[in-house]
Amino acid sequence: MTSAAADPLAAIEPMAPDLAARVTAFARSCKAAARAVALYPGEHPAVAAALEAVTVAAEAATTPAMLQFAVLPDALTVDGRAMARPDAAVTDFAALLHRHQVGQLSLRPQTDANLWRRFLALLALPPDQARLRGGLGKLWASEGETRIEIRSLDYNELLRSRIRGDKATWESIVAGCLEGNAFSLDDAMVELLFGILNDPDKIAGLMQAVEARLASGDTQGQGPMVIAGLLQAVAQFVATSAPEQADSVMNALAEAATRLPIDTLAPIVETQRGAFRPNLARFVQGLVRRISDGSIADLIRCEVRGGRGSSPRLADAFCGLAPDPDRRSAILALARGTMEQAGAAADPAIAQAWQQSEEMLLTYSDKAFVSDEYNNELGRLLDRSVEIEKDRTDPIDLMVAWRDTVDDDNVRLLDAALLADLMHLQQEVTHWRDLAELALRRVNALLVVGDFPAAALLVEALRSQSEGQGEPDIRAAAAEIMRNILTPSTMRHVASHLDTSDQSVVHAAQRFCVALGTVAIGPLAEVLSREERNRPRKHLIDVLIGFGAPGRQSVEQLRQSPNAAVRRTAVLLLREFGGQEALPELEKLLDDSEPHVQREATRAIAGLGIESAYDTLIRALERGTERARMSILGVIWTLPDEDAEQLLSHLVLTAPCRGAMWAIHERALERLGSLGGRSSVNALSTVLERRRFWSPFRMAALHRMAVDALGQIGTPDAVAVIETTAIHGPRWARTAAQARLGAAMGKTTREGQLG
Fold first, then answer.
1. Under a CB-based contact definition with an 8 Å cutoff, are residues 608 and 646 in contact?
2. Strands of the 102-107 sheet, one edge to the other
3. pLDDT tens across 491-502, in order?
4. Are 364 and 332 in contact (CB under 8 A)?
5. Count of CB atoms within 10 A of residue 174's CB?
6. Is the link from the previous residue into 278 a cis peptide, with omega within 30 of 0?
7. What are the structural domain ranges in the chain?
8. Does 1.25.10.10 match the CATH number of domain 656-755?
9. Which site from 181, 495, 586, 699 is most exposed, i.e. has the minimal number of CB atoms within 10 Å?
């Protein structure tokens, strides 16, 4: 490529020195703050200092007015101007934004540390996880903040501008395909490429864009190799991200390849016999074998109708797609039949062109262009290549399965298994200690990358040695190593990798923690108490539950913490452990000074769904302070209908009707009328049967409310209860029921008269 193509910033006007200094200071502070937020807990002094620094730098950068960056893969520009001298921090920060598909970053004045904490926490997410949740742009938009705005890259703009919208991105794609680099795609780019390959007009635009970027002498004519590389990149992306779809995607790519221009398809087909890029050659071989006879026949028919049926390129492509002469004859017969059915053969010009093309395609051979010796060598190599593919890469599910056995995770697991076996075999304490120290370092490194299966394997091996090794010195050394594994940062590393929906990761983390033993419970509970993200918090709770009874004992320590957030964590754990045995501890938390803790405890108790739990809430309402009562009632009135009906039915039947409880009874009867289930009708019927003479006015009011609630329900069962009460109920209930029935009859009479 030309130097301008290699350096897309070469022709951009440089920034003013003052602006460049402010941009550099901001990028450096933002990069450092992003690292601090990702690595340290929120309360760590390093996080506060980093956030303060980025806030000051952002304020300085936006002092005159809003600052807007255009994000390139390795640079930031402002108003079309780049930095005269690239800075490593700016390059790294731009690359981080670009990995999240951020195309534009806008800053307004008056940002603060809390705003930057939230933004950088999202920026610290792995890009693939962010894309699974909608992308960084969508996640930040949900925050509703306008002081920091981001605009995501739209890969479809590449297509709308004939693949010229994002020059830097396209340049990197072309370079990666030409140089054979391990070049990665994302979902958006795969979708874009499929859209191009399914539309002949768009394919032409793609080829024009490729050739325009390969105009220099050293890369001219390599457009087909770029297209082949793109097809291979799509297949690799799908095989990695969705292996179950790899076979169908390969079939789709094979059919799409036949829609390429013949000048592009022919060199791609010839690639399968080349040795310069063996991986690409093997991919093309697999692709060619999947192309159906019908697709090749359609290709021949289109070329003949376009007046290109006798071109050497078509003959080369045809021989490469169908090496067997008998198959070529069958394909030509199929193409001829299709043309006859369409009536095209009736045209004399097309009939003559078809005859010439058919004769040329049936007799064409490349033997005139190569020596017999070289042709034999090509045939031998081709046969060997096919044999290897049958053994290792065909069918595709075997290829995927084999590749999975040598990916990074499996290699680390094999390494851990080897180290565990060596520790088991070694009986000399000095050499064993060397192996154990190596295992300890491996565990620490594995936790950083989140490889819990390999880390668990090593810890289980060490624990086995500490408990069952016959040599006392080795057993003592293993116990010492086990104590050294658990550091203050161990569980923070565990939590940092649990923001995932992959249950295999959670189970592996649980296995690792259980292998450490009960000593891990305390640090786990501490990390859980500080975790604010919902998904990691749920997974940490699952890990603690996996310890069984010892995990439950950690609740008492959390429940007595002076930190309200820690006490709320205790409630969550008690709710997950469940069972009536958790009720006494939950009842103590109803008296907590923090309303949030009281509300969580109320939800947990109500969720038990047993009468003893309901009695606990009633006692708390009766004897608690006004503040505690309001917190508990705030939860009760917002419970789901099914839970609320059971609790309120029990409350109106068993709770006393005196003091502050009278107002609660009124509200409970009203809510039962709106719920209207069978339990509500039974509870209201029982209320109407009450006979208490020491508070006649209050009892009469209670009966009226019960009758009104039954009238609101209005089901046949509810009406039957009102009718029975009007005849046989207590005096106050009878009066209320008769009044209700009388009002209903009067309304019916008036409606009849009006009718």
1. no
2. 75-77, 67-72, 102-107, 148-152
3. 888 888 888 888
4. no
5. 25
6. no
7. 3-153, 155-291, 656-755
8. yes
9. 181
